[in-house]
Every structure is written in structure tokens, then in C-alpha cells.
Design goal:
By secondary structure, the chain is mostly helical. Helices cover about 80% and strands about 0% of the residues. It is built from 5 helices and no strands. The chain is elongated.
Length: about 120
């Protein structure tokens, strides 16, 4: 498995841990600042993964299936989108948005992993 594939698997694992942490901290609004940082790091890892993927495309490497481009890009979007939407709500609802963003990142990441090079 390439560095791109391994980092993709790591993004999935980190986002899954982020989703679990959000669930565990749902009753603790004081944990929200820490959760925000962790979730932003998840988003950063997904963005780095996408940049590595783009570098591979420029170098001539193509994924097994073309739909990989969609799922790879879709992996980057949910967390920033959740953060933008969460700015309008209270802390308790913000955690719901962060949960949705991390879970969507996991699901899109799994699909991206299965459509890329093996």
C-alpha cells in the first residue's frame, strides 16, 4: 500500500476516533474547544491526503476507478462544512454537527479507499 493509501486509512481512523470523542463528550460542553482542535486536525489530515493524491495524478498515477476523485474530494468537505454550519447554533448542537462531519469523513474515506489503487 502506498503512502497515499496509508494516510487515507489513517484519516479514516482519526476521523472515527473524532466521532467517538464527540459522542463521549456530548454531555461535557467544556470539552468542546479540545474537540474543535481535534476535528480540525482531522480535516487537515484529509486535506493533506487530497494534496498527495493530486500530486500522484500530476505524476501520472491514476486510481483504479474514476469515481475515486469524487470520494477523495468528498472526504475533505464534511468537517469544514460542519464547522461553518455549527457557528449558528449552541454548543450542544455544535457537537451534533461535528459528529456528522466526522462520520461523513469516515464514510467517504472508506469509499475512497476502496476505489483507489490497491
Amino acid at each position: 500500500m502506498s503512502v497515499h493509501g496509508r494516510l487515507g486509512a489513517a484519516v479514516i481512523a482519526v476521523a472515527a476516533v473524532g466521532a467517538l470523542l464527540v459522542l463521549l463528550a456530548r454531555g461535557r460542553p467544556s470539552a468542546l474547544p479540545t474537540l474543535r482542535v481535534f476535528v480540525r486536525l482531522c480535516a487537515g489530515a484529509a486535506a493533506l491526503e487530497a494534496l498527495i493524491g493530486l500530486a500522484l495524478v500530476v505524476a501520472g498515477n491514476r486510481p483504479t476507478e474514476g469515481i475515486h476523485f469524487f470520494y477523495g474530494a468528498a472526504t475533505v468537505v464534511p468537517i469544514p462544512a460542519a464547522e461553518v454550519l455549527a457557528r449558528r447554533v449552541g454548543a450542544r448542537d455544535e457537537m451534533f454537527y461535528l459528529l456528522a462531519g466526522t462520520v461523513a469523513t469516515v464514510l467517504f474515506g472508506i469509499r475512497a479507499l476502496t476505489t483507489g489503487n490497491t
